[in-house]
């Protein structure tokens, strides 16, 4: 299981919501979390999950 970097939920690697950032693949529980991460990925990587956007 992967951890959604935005909300902290456990996400299966088969999730359709994923994005590549600096050579690493990140998985998300929803399109909302994916979009929030893509808007400011460094914020979530620096501060950690904050709950649903």
Give a quick precis of the structure.
With 53 residues, the protein is an alpha+beta fold. It has one domain.
Written overview of the protein:
- The structure is a single chain.
- By secondary structure, the protein is an alpha+beta fold.
- It has one domain (2-47).
- 30% of the residues lie in helices and 23% in strands.
- It is built from two helices and four strands.
- The protein has helices spanning 31-39, 41-47; strands at 2-3, 10-11, 18-21, 24-27.
- The strands form two sheets. The protein has a two-stranded antiparallel sheet with strand order 1-2.
- Strand 3 and strand 4 form a beta hairpin.
- The chain is globular.
- It starts with a strand and ends in a 6-residue tail after the last helix.
Features:
alpha+beta, two-stranded antiparallel ribbon, 4 strands, 30% helix
Low-confidence stretches: none
- Can you tell me the overall shape? globular
Helical content class: 25-40%
Radius of gyration, in angstroms, nearest whole number: 10 Å
Q: Quick check: average pLDDT?
A: 93
* Strand numbers in spatial order across the main sheet: 1-2
For the largest beta-sheet, the strand count, sense and barrel status come to: 2 strands, antiparallel
Q: How many helices in DSSP terms? A: 2
Structural class: alpha+beta
Strand content: 15-25%
Question: Using DSSP, what is the number of strands?
Answer: 4
How many structural domains? 1
Instruction: Quote the distance from N terminus to C terminus.
Output: 21 Å
H-E string: EEEEHH
């Amino acid at each position: 299981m992967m951890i959604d970097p935005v909300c902290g939920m456990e996400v299966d690697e088969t999730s359709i919501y994923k994005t590549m950032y600096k050579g690493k693949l990140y998985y998300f529980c929803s399109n909302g979390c994916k979009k929030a991460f893509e808007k400011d990925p460094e914020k979530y990587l620096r501060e950690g999950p904050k709950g649903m956007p």
